[in-house]
Design a protein that fits this description.
- It holds the Pfam family LisH.
- This is CTLH domain-containing protein.
- The chain is mainly alpha-helical.
- About 65% of the residues lie in helices and about 5% in strands.
- The mean pLDDT is about 90.
Length: about 240
Protein backbone atom coordinates (compact mmCIF):
# COMPACT_ATOMS: atom_id res chain seq x y z
CA UNK A 1 0.00 0.00 0.00
CA UNK A 2 2.91 2.37 0.61
CA UNK A 3 3.83 2.50 -3.08
CA UNK A 4 0.21 3.31 -3.88
CA UNK A 5 0.32 6.38 -1.69
CA UNK A 6 3.71 7.39 -3.06
CA UNK A 7 2.19 7.25 -6.54
CA UNK A 8 -0.73 9.36 -5.37
CA UNK A 9 1.73 11.82 -3.88
CA UNK A 10 3.55 12.05 -7.18
CA UNK A 11 0.33 12.72 -9.06
CA UNK A 12 -0.70 15.38 -6.57
CA UNK A 13 2.72 17.03 -6.87
CA UNK A 14 2.47 17.11 -10.65
CA UNK A 15 -1.00 18.66 -10.57
CA UNK A 16 0.16 21.41 -8.25
CA UNK A 17 3.39 22.19 -10.05
CA UNK A 18 2.40 21.73 -13.69
CA UNK A 19 2.23 24.76 -16.00
CA UNK A 20 2.29 25.24 -19.76
CA UNK A 21 5.92 24.08 -19.78
CA UNK A 22 7.54 21.39 -17.73
CA UNK A 23 8.03 22.41 -14.13
CA UNK A 24 11.33 21.55 -12.49
CA UNK A 25 10.77 20.09 -9.03
CA UNK A 26 13.79 19.96 -6.75
CA UNK A 27 14.65 17.00 -4.55
CA UNK A 28 13.82 19.06 -1.44
CA UNK A 29 10.36 19.94 -2.74
CA UNK A 30 9.69 16.38 -3.90
CA UNK A 31 10.78 14.72 -0.68
CA UNK A 32 8.64 17.13 1.33
CA UNK A 33 5.57 16.15 -0.67
CA UNK A 34 6.34 12.45 -0.26
CA UNK A 35 6.96 12.85 3.46
CA UNK A 36 3.52 14.39 3.82
CA UNK A 37 2.01 11.05 2.77
CA UNK A 38 1.41 8.91 5.83
CA UNK A 39 1.47 5.13 5.51
CA UNK A 40 0.41 2.81 8.31
CA UNK A 41 2.93 0.22 9.37
CA UNK A 42 0.12 -2.35 9.47
CA UNK A 43 -0.54 -1.77 5.77
CA UNK A 44 3.14 -2.22 4.98
CA UNK A 45 3.22 -5.47 6.95
CA UNK A 46 0.12 -6.80 5.18
CA UNK A 47 1.72 -6.04 1.81
CA UNK A 48 4.84 -7.98 2.78
CA UNK A 49 2.82 -10.91 4.14
CA UNK A 50 0.69 -10.99 0.98
CA UNK A 51 3.82 -11.31 -1.14
CA UNK A 52 5.37 -14.04 1.02
CA UNK A 53 2.16 -16.09 1.11
CA UNK A 54 1.35 -15.76 -2.59
CA UNK A 55 4.88 -16.58 -3.70
CA UNK A 56 5.10 -19.52 -1.30
CA UNK A 57 7.86 -18.44 1.09
CA UNK A 58 6.37 -20.34 4.01
CA UNK A 59 9.35 -20.17 6.36
CA UNK A 60 9.79 -16.45 5.78
CA UNK A 61 6.04 -15.91 6.23
CA UNK A 62 6.07 -17.78 9.55
CA UNK A 63 9.07 -15.80 10.80
CA UNK A 64 7.52 -12.53 9.65
CA UNK A 65 4.27 -13.45 11.42
CA UNK A 66 6.11 -13.99 14.68
CA UNK A 67 8.19 -10.82 14.38
CA UNK A 68 5.51 -8.42 13.13
CA UNK A 69 2.34 -9.94 14.54
CA UNK A 70 0.81 -9.88 11.07
CA UNK A 71 -1.51 -12.83 10.54
CA UNK A 72 -1.73 -14.37 7.05
CA UNK A 73 -5.15 -14.74 5.48
CA UNK A 74 -4.67 -18.48 4.86
CA UNK A 75 -3.27 -21.42 6.80
CA UNK A 76 0.49 -21.39 6.27
CA UNK A 77 0.47 -25.20 6.20
CA UNK A 78 -1.35 -25.05 2.85
CA UNK A 79 1.59 -23.15 1.36
CA UNK A 80 3.83 -26.19 1.79
CA UNK A 81 1.32 -28.37 -0.06
CA UNK A 82 0.95 -25.80 -2.83
CA UNK A 83 4.69 -25.47 -3.27
CA UNK A 84 5.02 -29.26 -3.48
CA UNK A 85 2.63 -29.23 -6.44
CA UNK A 86 4.50 -26.37 -8.09
CA UNK A 87 7.87 -28.07 -7.59
CA UNK A 88 6.58 -31.35 -9.04
CA UNK A 89 5.52 -29.58 -12.25
CA UNK A 90 8.80 -27.67 -12.45
CA UNK A 91 10.68 -30.97 -12.19
CA UNK A 92 8.53 -32.62 -14.87
CA UNK A 93 6.70 -34.95 -12.45
CA UNK A 94 3.28 -34.04 -13.77
CA UNK A 95 1.46 -37.20 -12.66
CA UNK A 96 2.65 -36.61 -9.11
CA UNK A 97 1.52 -32.98 -9.35
CA UNK A 98 -1.97 -34.02 -10.49
CA UNK A 99 -2.26 -36.44 -7.56
CA UNK A 100 -1.19 -33.74 -5.13
CA UNK A 101 -3.71 -31.26 -6.57
CA UNK A 102 -6.50 -33.81 -6.21
CA UNK A 103 -5.43 -34.47 -2.63
CA UNK A 104 -5.70 -30.76 -1.92
CA UNK A 105 -9.03 -30.23 -3.66
CA UNK A 106 -10.42 -32.47 -6.45
CA UNK A 107 -12.68 -29.66 -7.64
CA UNK A 108 -9.70 -27.63 -8.83
CA UNK A 109 -9.19 -29.82 -11.89
CA UNK A 110 -12.82 -30.92 -12.17
CA UNK A 111 -13.93 -27.32 -12.67
CA UNK A 112 -10.97 -26.11 -14.73
CA UNK A 113 -10.74 -28.06 -18.01
CA UNK A 114 -8.10 -25.71 -19.44
CA UNK A 115 -5.77 -26.28 -16.49
CA UNK A 116 -6.27 -30.04 -16.68
CA UNK A 117 -5.55 -30.00 -20.42
CA UNK A 118 -2.35 -28.01 -19.87
CA UNK A 119 -1.20 -30.47 -17.24
CA UNK A 120 -1.89 -33.36 -19.61
CA UNK A 121 -0.13 -31.46 -22.36
CA UNK A 122 2.86 -31.10 -20.05
CA UNK A 123 2.79 -34.87 -19.45
CA UNK A 124 2.94 -35.36 -23.21
CA UNK A 125 5.87 -32.94 -23.48
CA UNK A 126 7.76 -34.85 -20.80
CA UNK A 127 7.20 -38.14 -22.64
CA UNK A 128 8.59 -36.58 -25.81
CA UNK A 129 11.50 -35.09 -23.90
CA UNK A 130 12.39 -38.55 -22.60
CA UNK A 131 12.23 -40.10 -26.08
CA UNK A 132 9.15 -42.24 -25.35
CA UNK A 133 7.68 -41.78 -28.80
CA UNK A 134 5.20 -44.67 -28.88
CA UNK A 135 3.97 -43.92 -25.38
CA UNK A 136 3.64 -40.24 -26.29
CA UNK A 137 1.55 -41.00 -29.38
CA UNK A 138 -0.69 -43.36 -27.44
CA UNK A 139 -1.14 -40.84 -24.65
CA UNK A 140 -1.94 -38.05 -27.11
CA UNK A 141 -4.51 -40.18 -28.89
CA UNK A 142 -6.24 -41.52 -25.80
CA UNK A 143 -6.07 -38.59 -23.38
CA UNK A 144 -5.70 -35.38 -25.37
CA UNK A 145 -7.29 -35.97 -28.77
CA UNK A 146 -10.83 -36.36 -27.35
CA UNK A 147 -10.47 -33.02 -25.57
CA UNK A 148 -9.17 -31.43 -28.74
CA UNK A 149 -12.30 -32.55 -30.59
CA UNK A 150 -14.37 -30.58 -28.08
CA UNK A 151 -12.22 -27.44 -28.03
CA UNK A 152 -10.51 -25.89 -31.04
CA UNK A 153 -7.83 -24.14 -28.99
CA UNK A 154 -6.96 -27.42 -27.27
CA UNK A 155 -6.66 -29.10 -30.67
CA UNK A 156 -4.27 -26.41 -31.90
CA UNK A 157 -2.10 -26.77 -28.80
CA UNK A 158 -2.10 -30.56 -29.19
CA UNK A 159 -1.04 -30.29 -32.83
CA UNK A 160 1.82 -27.96 -31.88
CA UNK A 161 2.98 -30.39 -29.20
CA UNK A 162 2.83 -33.48 -31.40
CA UNK A 163 4.80 -31.57 -34.02
CA UNK A 164 7.83 -32.00 -31.77
CA UNK A 165 7.97 -35.63 -32.88
CA UNK A 166 8.56 -34.62 -36.48
CA UNK A 167 11.96 -33.08 -35.76
CA UNK A 168 15.13 -34.91 -34.80
CA UNK A 169 16.83 -31.62 -33.97
CA UNK A 170 14.41 -29.70 -31.75
CA UNK A 171 16.73 -26.68 -31.80
CA UNK A 172 15.50 -26.04 -35.34
CA UNK A 173 11.92 -26.92 -34.53
CA UNK A 174 9.43 -24.02 -34.77
CA UNK A 175 7.74 -25.25 -31.58
CA UNK A 176 10.93 -26.19 -29.77
CA UNK A 177 10.16 -23.71 -26.99
CA UNK A 178 7.71 -26.26 -25.60
CA UNK A 179 10.72 -28.23 -24.38
CA UNK A 180 12.20 -25.21 -22.62
CA UNK A 181 12.10 -25.02 -18.85
CA UNK A 182 10.02 -21.88 -19.29
CA UNK A 183 7.13 -24.09 -20.44
CA UNK A 184 7.26 -26.03 -17.17
CA UNK A 185 7.35 -22.77 -15.24
CA UNK A 186 4.35 -21.48 -17.18
CA UNK A 187 2.32 -24.59 -16.34
CA UNK A 188 3.47 -24.53 -12.71
CA UNK A 189 2.41 -20.89 -12.42
CA UNK A 190 -1.02 -21.72 -13.81
CA UNK A 191 -1.48 -24.52 -11.27
CA UNK A 192 -0.27 -22.27 -8.45
CA UNK A 193 -2.80 -19.58 -9.41
CA UNK A 194 -5.64 -22.12 -9.55
CA UNK A 195 -4.85 -23.44 -6.07
CA UNK A 196 -4.72 -19.91 -4.66
CA UNK A 197 -8.06 -19.09 -6.27
CA UNK A 198 -9.59 -22.23 -4.75
CA UNK A 199 -8.42 -20.97 -1.35
CA UNK A 200 -10.10 -17.59 -1.92
CA UNK A 201 -6.73 -15.90 -2.15
CA UNK A 202 -5.39 -13.53 -4.80
CA UNK A 203 -3.55 -15.46 -7.46
CA UNK A 204 -0.98 -12.67 -7.89
CA UNK A 205 0.86 -10.73 -5.17
CA UNK A 206 -0.06 -7.07 -4.80
CA UNK A 207 3.51 -5.77 -4.72
CA UNK A 208 4.29 -6.23 -8.47
CA UNK A 209 1.04 -4.44 -9.34
CA UNK A 210 2.01 -1.50 -7.17
CA UNK A 211 5.44 -1.36 -8.79
CA UNK A 212 3.81 -1.34 -12.23
CA UNK A 213 1.56 1.48 -11.04
CA UNK A 214 4.61 3.42 -9.88
CA UNK A 215 6.33 3.01 -13.26
CA UNK A 216 3.16 4.02 -15.10
CA UNK A 217 2.72 7.10 -12.92
CA UNK A 218 6.31 8.20 -13.48
CA UNK A 219 5.94 7.76 -17.24
CA UNK A 220 2.86 9.98 -17.13
CA UNK A 221 4.61 12.56 -15.00
CA UNK A 222 7.61 12.66 -17.34
CA UNK A 223 5.39 14.48 -19.84
CA UNK A 224 4.47 17.16 -17.33
CA UNK A 225 7.38 17.76 -15.01
CA UNK A 226 11.05 17.19 -14.30
CA UNK A 227 11.39 15.67 -10.86
CA UNK A 228 13.48 13.18 -8.83
CA UNK A 229 12.69 9.73 -10.26
CA UNK A 230 12.94 6.22 -8.88
CA UNK A 231 14.87 4.45 -11.62
CA UNK A 232 16.13 1.50 -9.58
CA UNK A 233 13.15 -0.26 -8.02
CA UNK A 234 15.38 -2.53 -5.93
CA UNK A 235 16.78 0.45 -3.99
CA UNK A 236 13.88 2.91 -4.46
CA UNK A 237 16.47 5.70 -4.40
CA UNK A 238 15.40 9.07 -5.75
CA UNK A 239 17.67 10.33 -8.51
CA UNK A 240 18.02 14.06 -9.16
CA UNK A 241 16.31 15.29 -12.33
CA UNK A 242 18.45 15.88 -15.39
CA UNK A 243 18.27 19.60 -16.12
Amino acid sequence: MSLFWIVMGQLAAADEEMSTSKKVITREEWEKKLNDVKVKKEDMNKLVMNFLVTEGYVEAAEKFRMESGTEPDIDLATITDRMAVKKAVQCGNVEDAIEKVNDLNPEILDTNPQLFFHLQQQRLIELIRNGKVEEALEFAQEELAPRGEENQSFLEELERTVALLAFEDVSNCPVGELLDISQRLKTASEVNAAILTSQSHEKDPKLPSLLKMLIWAQNQLDEKAVYPRINNLSTAALEDPAI
